[in-house]
Amino acid sequence: MLQTLPALWNPSQSQMGIPLGAVEFTMLPQLSALSSDTLWLKFGHEYLRKAPFICASQRHREDLIIKKQKAHPQNVDLPPILPKKKKKPFPIPIEKMRQAARKDKKIAEMGIEKPLQPPQNGLLVPRLIPVAYEVLDAWKDLIKGLSQLVHVIPVFGCSACSEVHVAHTGHNIQDCNGGTCGSRRGFHSWVKGSINDILVPIESYHMYDPFGRRVKHETRFDYDRIPAVVELCIQAGVDIQDYPSRRRTNPIRMIGRKVIDRGGFVEELKPWRSRGSSSFLDFDTDGACGRFPPPSLADVPRIAQETVDAYEKVRTGVTKLMQKYTVKACGYCPEVHVGPCGHNVKLCGAFKHQWRDGKHGWQDAIVDEVFPFNYVWHAQDPKGPPLRSALKRFYGKAPAVVEVCMQAGAQIPERYKPMMRLDIVVPDSEEEGLVA
To answer: Which residues of 302-334 are buried (b: 16+ CB within 10 A; e: fewer)?
Structure first.
């Protein structure tokens, strides 16, 4: 049925009184197969398509599809690599930190004691103690599983840079940034890798009293360095015989930034200087491959699945612990310190360290700095031809632990599939020139 509206007038020709023509709204039968809810405007003998009518139920379905695509995207790009000649961004906006500092200063000027909640007052958080034990147990399982899988799954590391590749041969992607990369035209110098190439060793000073005396440059050899994940678990309530920690019963009191009652300084116990003890070897990655023999081929899929599950438990537990317990990271280098304030060791050699006399630029740490992902290129066929630079945009990436466990037969966690680009077909060498 046609409905004719009043004629449209051209403003430039309104004085002449010449109409442009009538506008007709119609549903064309011959176009109904394309879109049943499309409105077509008729100007004389021509038809123009108008936006379709969308009912409430259809808009609701489209919103659900968009939300589903956002929740489970097909392909996700990795976070950009931060430049080394620039300070890392603050995890908390600087304006919020300034507001909190002004608030603390105002309360201190009024002489009011600063309200502190555990663990900021030196006391433990009871509900996080089981989480700390679970993280430490999962950390031990992760080291044990990777040590066994390294005997079966080949891992290569570049001798000039930090690049790692999990396959039967190293890749041919020219992205080496080592000292001698110019003579090698960007190709990597591959050597046999170890568990330290898969799990990046992030260490921290073990503190008997995190709220006690700070580690100075002259006293840095009086403290042991252990994995930051283990130190975080110790401060969260885990008791290890070789690494004791002070457990306070009375809270710390502060006015502004000044501590008025810390319970006094106590002599630090130092019976932990036994790196060869069995309790230390359980959560240390050095020499882990020699402590565990190669597994049987029938047990490899089971070990791989247990290892990737332990990896997820460690990351989830560290995230929960860092929401309460303070961890500091240098804004210029990978140094990490578990505690309310960073140490005073002058060993920072990053950008403009001369201006800071070698001191670290401490700021709040994020989970990726304590337990980094260590992304590697995903090889769809580990026994196939090596990856090439010309097809680099078709390759995905995955954490090194996930890549090792996947090649050993474990199920890939859902949140890592988009970054691995499993739905992209890598073209052959003959098809390379035909790809846009």
So the answer is: ebbbbbbbbbbbbbebbebbbebbbbbbbbbbe
E-strand spans in 188-346? 190-192, 203-205, 225-227, 253-255, 258-261, 327-330, 336-338
The mean pLDDT value for 416-421 works out to 88
Are the beta carbons of 369 and 333 closer than 8 angstroms? no
Which contiguous run of DSSP H or E holds residue 20?
strand 19-21
Query: Residues 24-52: pLDDT tens digits?
Result: 444 444 444 444 444 444 444 444 444 44
Alpha carbon distance 159, 156 (integer Å): 9
CA dist 157 and 188 (Å) reads 9
2 neighbors 26 (Cβ within 8 angstroms): yes
Largest pairwise CA distance in the chain: 104
DSSP β-ladder status, 397-399 and 375-377: antiparallel
Q: Are 168 and 383 in contact (CB under 8 A)?
A: yes
- Residue 83 tokens read as 């430049």
User: What is the per-residue pLDDT across 68-120, written as a single tens digit (0 to 9) for each?
Assistant: 555 556 777 777 888 888 899 999 899 999 999 899 889 888 888 888 889 99
Kindly state the tokens that stand for 354: 């001369």
Digit-coded pLDDT (tens) for 213-253? 899 999 999 999 999 999 999 999 999 988 889 998 888 88
Using CB atoms within 10 A of its CB, is residue 152 exposed (0-12), middle (13-18) or buried (19+)?
middle
Say how far residue 216 (Cα) sits from the centre of its chain.
Answer: 31
- What is residue 198's three-state secondary structure? helix
Question: How far is Cα of residue 186 from the mean position of the Cα atoms in its chain?
Answer: 27
Looking at the DSSP bridge assignments, the partners of residue 190 are 158
From the list 175, 152, 151, the residue with the least C-alpha distance to 162 is: 175
Nearest to 274 by CA among 244, 302, 309, 307: 244
Q: Do 360 and 330 meet the contact criterion of CB atoms below 8 Å apart? A: yes
